[in-house]
Specification:
Elements lengths: L1 H21 L2 H19 L5 H120 L1
Helix pairs in contact: 1-3, 2-3
């Protein structure tokens, strides 16, 4: 089986080389020179015209048969490559769909995180407001207490003055 595969690969490489050469400028020049020579041989009297046409027709027919085979081999090989590429494209499309789904999930997660951040900020703002309110209440209580203490001091001073007056009497 190994020899068959190796032989097949060698034959495919030869066929690829021939197909490439047939489609090249050197091939065009060689064929042109061959046809010119073929038609010059009867004019120079080296070969009869009918024999030259018979040989030329046979050679060209054989060449056409082999070229058709080589071209079909190239088409088959190209078709196999196209099928492989199509499979690769399908795999890539599946990967893109999966990536798109992942991106959608990530976007949803980002939205959830943003909502959580907004809630945390709102909570902090509410805590700041309640803390400020507590501070204002405490300050007003302190001021109120200061006023009451001052009033009590004044009362104590009055009472002290009264005690001092009573002691004098």
């Amino acid at each position: 089986m190994k020899n068959y595969t190796e032989n097949k690969e060698v034959l495919e490489k030869i066929a690829d080389g021939i197909t490439w050469w047939i489609g090249s400028i050197p091939s065009l020049i060689a064929h042109t020179l061959f046809f010119i020579t073929s038609f010059l041989l009867p004019l120079l009297g080296l070969v009869e015209f009918d024999k030259m046409l018979l040989i030329l027709t046979t050679v060209v027919s054989l060449e056409a048969i082999y070229l058709a085979i080589f071209i079909q081999m190239s088409v088959n090989k190209s078709h196999e490559k196209i099928e492989d590429i199509q499979e690769d494209i399908e795999d890539i499309q599946e990967d893109i769909e999966e990536i798109s789904e992942d991106i959608e999930e990530i976007n949803e997660d980002i939205e959830d995180i943003q909502e959580d951040i907004e809630e945390i900020n709102e909570d902090e703002e509410e805590e700041d407001h309640s803390e400020r309110a507590k501070n204002v209440i405490l300050k007003s209580n302190v001021n109120s207490n200061k006023n009451e203490i001052k009033a009590l001091k004044d009362k104590i001073q009055e009472l002290q003055d009264m005690i001092d007056d009573l002691k004098k009497d």
